[in-house]
Write a structure and sequence with these properties.
Number of helices: 10
Radius of gyration: 19 Å
Strand content: under 5%
Largest sheet: none
Order of helices and strands: HHHHHHHHHH
Distance between the termini: 7 Å
Shape: globular
Oligomer: single chain
Low-confidence stretches: none
Number of domains: 1
Mean pLDDT: 78
Number of strands: 0
Length: 251
């Protein structure tokens, strides 16, 4: 990735925003990528269904603790709390889905992004390690990444308790944090092949500047659309690989 100050030109944001959609077109045009991506989608469908069922159960459980009755204020309270908890749970599902889905589908996603890099550049740059070591390393880094996410989002959630100003700040900072961590998740494939540590990966993504904002925003939007979100992992993984290679060419 480029060194120095992160790029902040609006064009960087606009170029990175459609990356997942560009990736879908690229995957569809290549039989070597298409069949691997379909396998990932199948696994994603099962994982997403499990998370949606669990998320709905959490919302129902929280709402069940509220005072019931026929009073109008009780019904309004349950409705408001249900919406707020639903939004929080939806965001948590998206982050957990990408983490767990990546671990479950990691062999297929590795093959997919490797083939994409080979088709785009004619070769694959990598530090070779065994499959078992790769899976252990991936799981370890995923746990650390989720831990960092919780540490960051925990204090931000408290801002939501401050009326107006705090809620606005939470919305803005929460969006940026989500965009960054999703970019970190999907940029992991080309960065992992080059043997980078988690800290080095975080610096590499940060160096994208508005690039990670645009890409992460697109990934979040795609993850929130029912049915379309089962394509999130292959589209975002290949899209992040494309962005990484483009950034390398600009060095």
């Amino acid at each position: 990735m480029a060194s120095g100050s992160p790029p902040v030109a609006p064009s960087v944001f606009l170029r990175s925003l459609p990356a997942p959609l560009r990736a879908i077109g690229f995957i569809a045009s290549s039989p070597r990528l298409r069949w691997v991506a379909l396998g990932v989608v199948g696994l994603n469908t099962v994982v997403m269904a499990g998370f949606v069922w669990g998320g709905w159960a959490v919302v129902q459980w929280v709402v069940g603790w509220l005072p019931g009755g026929e009073q109008w204020w009780g019904q309004v309270l349950a409705w408001i709390v249900g919406i707020v908890v639903g939004i929080v749970v939806l965001g948590a599902i998206l982050v957990l889905f990408t983490s767990v889905g990546r671990i479950v589908a990691s062999p297929l996603l590795e093959v997919l992004t490797r083939r994409a890099e080979e088709e785009l550049t004619g070769r694959v740059e990598e530090v070779r390690i065994g499959w078992w070591r790769m899976l252990v390393r991936l799981a370890s880094q995923e746990l650390k990444r989720v831990g960092v996410f919780v540490v960051v989002m925990g204090p931000l959630t408290l801002l939501n308790l401050v009326p107006v100003v705090g809620q606005f700040a939470y919305s803005l900072l929460g969006w940026l944090a989500g965009a960054y961590f999703l970019s970190l998740e999907f940029m992991d494939y080309p960065l992992e092949r080059r043997g980078l540590s988690l800290g080095e990966k975080m610096k590499a993504v940060w160096s994208m500047g508005l690039g990670w904002v645009g890409f992460g925003t697109a990934a979040m939007a795609m993850g929130l659309v029912p049915v379309v979100n089962v394509m999130l992992l292959p589209a975002a993984a290949v899209g992040a690989t494309m962005l990484f290679l483009e950034a390398r060419q600009q060095q």
